[in-house]
C-alpha cells in the first residue's frame, strides 16, 4: 500500500512539473526503476511534510499574539472578580450547609445539600459573569446565568410562610439605595451541572456587594401557579 502511494506521488509530481518521464524497456532493470521511483517519492513526501510543518509553525506564530492577549484578559477578569469577591460581605461559613428537599414523585428532582463553599464559589462566578457581560447588549445579557432578582411577592405563598423569598431584602424601583439584587445558580456538589438553588446578592449604598441569602424553587411543585416562586433555603451551621 505504501509503495503504491509513493509511486502515485512520484508520477503526480513529474506530470505536474510538466516533465513526466515514462521508463522505456531496457533503460533500467525493473528493480532499479522501482528503487528510483521510490526514492523520488520519498523526497517528494519529505518536501510535502516539510512545507506542512513550516505552514503549521507559521500559523501558530501568527495566532500566538491573539492567544496571549485573550489569556491576559482572562487573568485580568479573574483578578477583578477576586477583588470584588474579597469585598463581598455576609459570606456564609464554609461548613454551613443548605438543604433543598427533593420531589418524591419526580426522581429527576432529588434532594440536594450545598455547603458554604458552594455558595462562595457561586458568588465569585457571579462577579466574573457580571464583568463578562457588562459591555454586552441587553439582548445578550438576557441569555446570561446572572439574572436580576426583585424579591417579588410569592404567587402561591406557603402556609404560615413569608410573603417574599427574603424578608431581610428590600428592593425599591429606581432607588439606588435598594436596587434589584442578582441571582446566580449553584452548581451541583462536585459537578458542573446547575441545580435548583441560587445565591442572591445585592449592592449596598456604600457600593459593595453583600450576600442576602440562598433561595430555591419548591421542587415538589408542578408547572402552574406558584411554580416559579423562590423560597429561602436556611443555612445550618456546623
Structure description:
- With 238 residues, the protein is α+β, with helices and mostly antiparallel strands.
- It folds into 2 domains: 2-20 and 28-59, no CATH class; 72-236, no CATH class.
- The protein contains 4 helices and 8 strands; from the N terminus they run H-H-E-E-H-H-E-E-E-E-E-E.
- It has helices spanning 2-16, 30-86, 116-133, 138-141; strands at 97-100, 112-115, 147-149, 181-187, 194-203, 209-217, 230-232, 235-236.
- A 5-stranded antiparallel beta sheet has the order 3-4-5-6-7, covered by helices on one side. Strands 2-1-8 form a 3-stranded antiparallel beta sheet.
- Strand 5 (194-203) and strand 6 (209-217) form a beta hairpin.
- Helix 2 crosses helix 3 (116-133).
- It is elongated and about 100 Å long.
- Residues 15-22 have low confidence and may be disordered.
Amino acid at each position: 500500500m505504501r509503495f503504491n502511494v509513493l509511486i502515485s506521488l512520484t508520477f503526480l509530481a513529474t506530470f505536474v512539473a510538466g516533465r513526466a518521464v515514462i521508463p522505456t524497456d531496457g533503460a533500467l532493470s525493473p528493480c532499479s526503476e522501482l528503487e528510483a521511483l521510490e526514492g523520488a517519492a520519498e523526497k517528494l513526501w519529505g518536501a510535502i511534510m516539510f512545507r506542512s510543518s513550516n505552514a503549521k509553525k507559521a500559523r501558530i506564530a501568527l495566532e500566538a499574539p491573539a492567544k496571549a492577549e485573550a489569556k491576559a484578559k482572562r487573568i485580568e477578569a479573574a483578578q477583578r472578580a477576586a477583588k470584588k469577591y474579597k469585598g463581598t460581605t455576609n459570606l456564609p461559613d464554609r461548613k454551613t450547609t443548605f438543604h433543598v428537599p427533593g420531589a418524591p414523585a419526580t426522581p429527576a428532582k432529588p434532594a440536594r445539600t450545598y455547603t458554604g463553599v458552594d455558595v462562595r464559589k457561586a458568588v465569585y462566578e457571579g462577579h466574573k459573569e457580571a464583568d463578562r457581560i457588562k459591555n454586552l447588549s441587553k439582548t445578550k445579557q438576557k441569555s446570561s446565568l446572572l439574572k436580576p432578582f426583585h424579591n417579588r411577592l410569592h404567587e402561591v405563598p406557603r402556609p404560615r410562610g413569608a410573603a417574599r423569598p427574603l424578608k431581610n431584602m428590600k428592593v425599591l424601583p429606581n432607588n439606588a439605595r435598594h436596587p434589584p439584587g442578582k441571582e446566580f445558580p449553584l452548581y451541583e456538589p462536585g459537578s458542573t451541572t446547575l441545580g435548583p438553588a441560587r445565591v442572591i446578592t445585592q449592592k449596598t449604598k456604600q457600593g459593595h456587594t453583600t450576600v442576602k441569602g440562598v433561595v430555591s424553587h419548591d421542587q415538589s411543585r408542578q408547572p402552574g401557579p406558584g411554580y416559579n416562586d423562590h423560597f429561602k433555603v436556611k443555612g445550618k451551621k456546623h
